[in-house]
Amino acid sequence: MSGGATVERVTGEVIIAVEGVSLAFGGVKALSDVSFDVREHEVRAIIGPNGAGKSSMLNVINGVYHPQRGTIRLKMDGTLREFHDMDPHEVALSGIARTFQNLALFKGMSVLDNIMTGRNLRMHSNILLQALRLGPAAKEEIEHREAVERIIDFLEIQAWRKTPVGRLPYGLQKRVDLGRALALEPSVLLLDEPMAGMNVEEKQDMCRFILDVNDHFGTTIVLIEHDMSVVMDISDRVVVLDYGRKIGDGTPDEVRGNQAVIDAYLGVSH
Amino acid sequence: MFYRENGQYKTTYAADQQMLPILQDRVFMAGLLVVAFVAVPFFASDYLFLSLLIPFLILTLAAIGLNLLVGYCGQISIGHAAFMAVGAYAAYNIALRIPQLNFLVVLVLAGLIAAAVGMLFGVPSLRIKGLYLAVATLAAQFFTDWLFARVKWFTDYASSGSVSTAPIVMFGWTIDTPVKKYCFLLAVLIVFTLIAKNLVRGHIGRAWMAMRDMDVAAEVIGIRPVYAKLSAFAVSSFYVGVAGALWGFMHLGSWEPLAFNLTLSLNLLFMIIIGGMGSLLGSYFGAAFIVMLPILLNQLPTLLGVPISTAMISHLELMIFGALIVFFLIVEPHGLARLWAVGKEKLRLWPFPH
Amino acid sequence: MPVDIGTLDTFPKLLAHHSQVRGTLAAIREKDLGVWQTWSWGRFADEVRALACGLAAHGLDHGAHLAIVGDNRPRLYAAMCAAQCLGAVPVPLYQDAIATEIAFPIQDAEIGFAMAEDQEQVDKLLEILPQCPSLKRIYFDDPRGLRNYPQEALTSYEKLQDAGRAFDAANPGFFDGIVARGVGSDAAAMFFTSGTTGNPKGVVLTHTALIDRAHAAAQMEGLSDSDVVLAYLPPAWIGQNIFSYAQPFVTGYCICCPESAETVMADMREIGPTYYFAPPRVLEALLTTVSIRMEDAGTFKRKMYLYFMEVAKRVGARILDGQSVDAGDRLLYRLGDILVYGPLRNVLGMSRVRVAYTAGEAIGPDLFVFYRSIGINLKQLYGSTETSVFVCIQPNGQVKSDTVGPAVPGVELKFTPQRELLIRSPGLFREYYKNPQATADAKDAEGWFHTGDAGYFDPDGHLKIIDRVKDVGALTDGTLFAPKYIENKLKFFPYIKEAVAFGDARDRACVFINFDMEAVGNWAERNNLPYAGYVDLASRDEVYQLVGDCIAKVNLDLSQDPELANSQIHRFLILHKELDADDGELTRTRKVRRGYIGERYQSLVEALYAGRQSVHVEAQVRYEDGRTGSISADLKIRDAKTFPVAAAKRAA
Amino acid sequence: MKKNLPTFILGIVLLTGLVAPLATGASAPGFYIEVLLGGLMAGVLYSLVALGFALIFKASGVFNFAQGAMVLFAALAVARLAERMPLWVAMLLATAIMIVLAWLVERLVLRPLVNQEGVALLMATLGVSYFLDGFGQTVWGSDIYKIELGIAKEPVMILDQLFQGGILVNKEDFVATIAAAALVASLMLFFQKTATGRALRAVADDHQAAQSIGIPLNRIWVIVWSVAGIVALVAGVIWGSKLGVQFSLSQVALKALPVVILGGFTSVAGAIVGGLIIGVGEKMAEVFLGPVMVKAFDLAGGGIENWFAYVLALLFLLVRPEGLFGEKHIDRV
User: Fold this and answer.
1) For residue B160, what pLDDT band results from cuts at 50, 70 and 90?
2) Total structural domains in chain A?
């Protein structure tokens, strides 16, 4: 996107390792024996037809669903550690944030407050201090406000900071959703179809934001996306799911050449 | 129309985040406070204090409490009078058993006990949502109704089951006349309103609202549901408990079992629906409305010269309340507070419509 | 009151003065990260010092140029001043220009240093780097997206300052010395003006010129350090720069930079500037939004608005000028002020405006009077880049919609026989950069600047600009004929879209009219006049009547002016087609090509002057659906109502 | 299995409570069975009202707090109408009134609030409840009225050869219970076997799907509210004849709420089983646990049945939020 320079991304060690994960709802299998890994600083895409289990995969990673089998290992304090049945807020604490496919913003709150909510896990002043808004509580509010303002600035949504999110057009709401996730200062960002329903211009903007996040903060990105040209453009490696199974994994070029992938997905629906 | 906001720019976050960022609002609020503290005590009659202002102040406090839980945190409760009862009986027993304790301390202790009970009944909210919770809170209602009616210890073994309070003396100041009660309650309400405002604009308030608006997303961005929900129950019950104690000591003076029954719970709920869920101002409007409507209904027929029986009036009241609830839910789910906000926005944009 | 200039003959010296006298007062605010971040004069001076030392360390010398590309940002203004400290010349460039457009100034002035606002501007500079070998260093304010740019030429603002602080520590006394050595006759800035033809010219302005003019105007308006200005126009335009750089430096007032282009209106409402400048197109756009938003209002509000705007139109401007108005109207206006004007000023962000200027092009009287009538002290001024802006300003209480006021103290004005305005003032530019020929053409040996504008003084001594001198002609009786002036007057009516005036070397003036389809269409609907389209309407007597009324008003106006009374429009016709740039009748910027139209429709022109009542035309027309066809029609020609000059003089 | 442990423990405790009076010899078997039967009879009525409640919830997602008010309204209507006409005519007329009421509720309350959140709908039914209470008492009067079913009320001794003292059964109660049980059975049949019943279930599963196969949602709502109205009428008549028609009836009927919590919100079987459990449980608790508690805590009388159902439901919510027969809810994000 940037005219001046193209930057080679340097990816690091494995930060998330998904091993043999299976998930079923009642009798319906959403994921069966899926394994893949995510490396530091990379942009990792998960693609697949509708109902392939992409969103379920994200939900497993961030603890909304607990898989029946398999493990998720996350890098914490420099080493990969295995976790069982982590709650979503524990996953958030460990540095993984996400956005949602269907907007899951807090409708009754302003843009500013929505993003401020993303700072909650870094705010610690107790309820009494907050009640009286005494020194530390007030100071904390201001410090985090400044952090949030930087995100607002980053996402270029200054004109709407005090607007209730419900009144914003769809594309801007998606940006706010991203902003809220960024407020966690995550090491990994899970993006569930960040560009769904956007026009070309909005998609370009969103791509720029995602790449800037990756570049500026060194955030690892895991994204689900339907627009193949976007996926091929911005991702380093791609996982392909179909009916809950992994059928391909590799660089965009490798995946493009993979016959199983072409059959299941690329050839048929796009 | 009256707003002149040019030049009211903020150079610090503290200024930007203040409660009333617009100068004209601050002026209006200051004027209102002067009226409430100076003009009203001078001009209002005892009847006005006893039947309108004192109940209004106490019920506003209770409505704020309920609003924190229902309007801000999205956890429904149709048994909140139970926590009023807990507050009232706790205050009664504390004052009875430790007579030398300052009334303010009694109030806070009563609130804390109510908060503890509230948290207990809030525990199911961790596992269940919305509608189910309604039944859990009903359990609190019926259980406390029974508890205070049947366990004699709470009523100091009074044979009738009703209790009466001693006059309130605080720092050597006896709060006995309606004017004194009014002033005391007004001060308490203002303090509690400020505290509530601070909470809802702090990170805990945002956690509550996040739980209300989209609980899964809230958890995913790191909000602990246990903390958010239980703290809402605790704070809410604290407010309602204090309101209960004040209701008992300052408004009723003596009360019988079932003074804090389901009807009171539902009235609290109606206050916040009509006034506006998720709005502190709405709690004021709602309480004022619910306190005034019966009085208006009583006065109006006499004024119009149409005689209506008292039974008829109470039935009418039920019908009007019921119809209004449905009306507000359909037409303005955010209640009178939203109408106020819209009006204010119109004034700010005057003469433009939007 | 502005500061006493005395020995403060350069901007850096003025800055040092402010940082001493009002070091803690706000110099510049920027809405950033949600609040108005403020630089005091002291802070401003510190920033400039570090920057200047940094630039010195990097080799920016006396007389060299520093390009500044970006929006209104405190750091970019600091960079301007930093360059001036070293005796170097800042060259602000338009931030919305494309890369090739900024290549010329950089090549022309052999610019070696550039300060860019952000990635977007840096990308442009990097793109033209191969064509601009002189460009050695590019500094940037906002590092976003630039972190991994490998180019060695790139340095961040912070790094530059770090280098500067180190340099300052190593060379104590350097900064103070070099600032002290600066003199008023040094070049202070260079602004590129876009000529209509050829390459833009770099206008070199000295410290003395800018400071003198800024000071004169500030003194006239009584500006002080409590004034506030919103900087929202491109800083590369002197019309912004004089208000957001030169004048704050001579008065110590505070300028405010909006957060982003989308938030200008909101930021203006928050800041509430006391001193405001807007070209007519901005004021026009504002008025349009006001009208549109009022259309959506309920009946009561709309009626109230219209009623009080009528009151304002009647007495508002007179009240503002301090003239006597009868008590009833005064009361009504007071009421209107509570209900309409006050809130309107608030919503526009103009509640606190003491002085507002408009300039740059002719402003319609209705537009001008609208702002004045709601109590905003909007005035016209006249000036250009070459004159450091301030040549004429309308003094308070002497405001007219069709003049630009008398000369500002210090300015001499005279006219050539061809009525071209000549200016001599301390504010004149030194030269066009590296263009002695153009300089000599524009500025004669006696120091008179040839403006190219034609005009005259009205009886009160106010300057009235009527046209470019090359377009002005004369009627056969020798009196002045200014076609553009007449056309503009006509175009200020909403019903008239275009007008073409003829009269040069003829005995009287006649016009072609294009009416505004939308406005006249609405008018026709309101008056139950069924019509089939433009051509149909153009043949209606009712429309001729409507247009004729407009022309009569213009004539009445013209008759009041002894110079132009003979140019009253005697006859007119409504063209059968809308003038179109595709047909070569308009330029791409929608200016009428009078000569071409005169040739193309020669038969019509002749018919006008031959006194005929109609003329037959056959013409190719393009319909809206893309088809072409020919129409043949008889165009009506009507006489317009004219007014005797003598009567007007009596009235005046 | 691990997750079901608390449920299991709660079940054991309840069962122990059930058999304790007999096992400890605190009660004579005859009396015990009398209490048990009394509980079952009350339970059938709870089941009946809960069924109406579950029906509405299933079809429209509305947590109908007005169920109690409907019972009172219907009972008042029958009682006052029966003063002027034969009982069966009064009941027919009251049925018609309840159907009109259902139609009005659908038109004036549900339709404008369609797609609103459950909590808003719950509050709307609170409004309806208030309105019905006020309206009912305005139209029908606010005294205590009687409904005479024409069945003898004196208790009959049965099985006196089996137990010492025999078992006292009220004949009217007995008939009423049979009638209620028959209504419950026919509702179940209606649900399972008829086209409308199946349509109702389709609506419950997926509103949009139901609409897309051509089931008019609005008519379904009128039907379920009508059915709930008729159920309320039957319950109101039975309770009314027993307790007298008065304001407190609406609170008795509110116990349908804990019943559905216990049984699982959308489950018909759950409503029936839950009703029986609560009916028996609270009667047992009142009769056998009450005196024990009065003695232990020095209470001013028993009255446990006022809260027993709710507290039991609360405990159930803690250990098994989906209820006995409910389905587990999965959050989609």
Assistant:
1) confident
2) 2
Instruction: Report helix, strand or coil for C292.
Output: helix
The verdict on A205 and A84 lying in the same domain is: yes
User: Nearest-CA residue of chain C relative to A214?
Assistant: C145
This prediction has a pTM of 0.89
Q: Do D331 and A25 touch (CB under 8 A)?
A: no
B74, B76, B217 member nearest D122 (Cβ): B76
**Residue A81 belongs to some domain of the structure:** yes
Distances in whole angstroms, Cα of residue C575 to Cα of each of C208, C500, C554, C571, C625: 52, 10, 19, 13, 21
Q: Which residue in the set B210, B219, B231 is minimally distant from A127, CB to CB?
A: B231
How many Å apart are CA C362 and CA C467, to the nearest integer? 10
Residue A167 lies in a domain: yes
List where CATH 3.40.50.12780 sits in chain C.
11-215+229-257
CA-nearest residue to C258 within chain B is B9
CA B112, chain centre distance (Å): 16
Same-domain status, A41 and A169: no
C-alpha A205 chain-centroid distance:
17
| Candidate CATH numbers 3.30.750.24, 3.30.300.30, 3.40.50.360, 2.60.120.620; the one for domain C473-651 | 3.30.300.30
Quick check: C145 contacting A, CB < 8 Å?
Answer: yes
Distance, in Å, from the CA atom of B211 to the CA atom of B198, rounded to the nearest integer, reads 18
Query: pLDDT by residue (tens digit) across D168-199?
Result: 777 778 888 888 888 888 888 887 788 777 77
User: What angle is formed at CA D18 by the lines to CA D14 and CA D24, rounded to 5 degrees?
Assistant: 125
Sheet holding C449-457, edge to edge: C412-415, C420-424, C449-457, C463-468
Boundary residue ending a domain (A168, A184, A200): A184
Of the candidates A184, A208, A238, which is a domain's last residue?
A: A184
- Do both A176 and A231 map to the same domain? no
Nearest CA to CA, how far is B319 from chain D (Å)? 4
Q: Is residue A208 domain-resident?
A: yes
Chain A CB contacts of C119 under 8 Å are 2, 4
Q: Name the CA dihedral angle for D58, D64, D68, D74, rounded to a multiple of 10 degrees.
A: -70
- Structural domains of chain B, with CATH: 22-349 (1.10.3470)
Domain of A140 in residue numbering reads as 107-184
Across the interface, whether the CB atoms of B198 and A132 are under 8 A apart is answered yes
Q: Coil, helix or strand for C360? A: coil
Contact A215 C147 (CB under 8 A): yes
CATH of residue A30:
3.40.50.300
Q: What angle do CA A123, A124, A128 make, to 5 degrees?
A: 120
A192 shares a domain with A67 = yes
A66 Cβ under 8 Å from any chain B Cβ = no
Chain B residue numbers touching C305 (CB-CB < 8 A): 351
Could you tell me if A161 and A79 lie in one domain? no
Q: What is the mean pLDDT of residues D1-20?
A: 79
> Is C344 in Cβ contact with B351 (below 8 Å)?
yes
Least confident of B328-342, C91-105, C188-202, C336-350: C188-202
Would the pLDDT of B271 be above 90? yes
Q: Identify the residue among A110, A146, A153 best suited for mutation to test binding to C, counting C beta carbons within 10 A and taking the highest.
A: A153
| Cβ–Cβ pairs < 8 A, chains B and D | 157
* Domains with residue ranges and CATH for chain D: 5-319 (1.10.3470)
Q: Pick the closest to residue C200 from C95, C93, C280 (CA basis).
A: C93
Chains near B with 3+ CB pairs less than 8 A apart are: A, C, D
B216 min Cα distance to partner chain A (Å): 8
Beta carbons of A59 and D330 less than 8 Å apart: no
The pLDDT of residue D329: 57
Q: Do B204 and A113 touch (CB under 8 A)?
A: no
- The CATH fold assigned to C11-215+229-257 is Rossmann fold (3.40.50)
Enter the ipTM.
Answer: 0.87
**Tens-digit pLDDT profile for residues D66-78:** 988 999 999 999 9
pLDDT tens-digit profile of B289-341?
999 988 888 888 778 877 778 888 888 889 998 999 999 999 998 999 999 99
Per CB distance under 8 Å, which residues of A are interface residues toward C? 2-5, 7, 112, 145-146, 149-150, 152-154, 156, 158-159, 161, 212, 215-216
Please, which residues bridge with residue B174 across strands?
A: B169
